[in-house]
Specification:
The protein has 116 residues and is an all-alpha fold. It is 91% helix and 0% strand.
Length: 116
Amino acid sequence: MLDDNAKRSGYRLLQYLTCYSLWIGHSALWFWIILQTRYTMVGLAVRLGLGRWTIATADKGGMLLLGVSWLGGIILLEDYLRKGVNNGRLRARTVRIFMFEAIAIGIVFGLRLLLT
């Protein structure tokens, strides 16, 4: 039989493996959301009748801004999830993150529906 300390250590390890698996999954999903946002914003710019140079400049600058935001976001996300393991609130924090992701996906695809 494992003693109580070994059980807690194994459970903690499992929580950290879950935490970092979620972090990788959320990071990939946010990257996909950013790519979809780019596609939607270019479509919006075309719909507004902006010139091709304006669209290209906004596209490149927007991707730079979104990319830096994504990088900062995944750093904050890792900290948020890791603290969730320490506080025992990983599940609640994951649900909150999924809610933000669902809202972001809803906004992007809602705008895309308006463009068609």
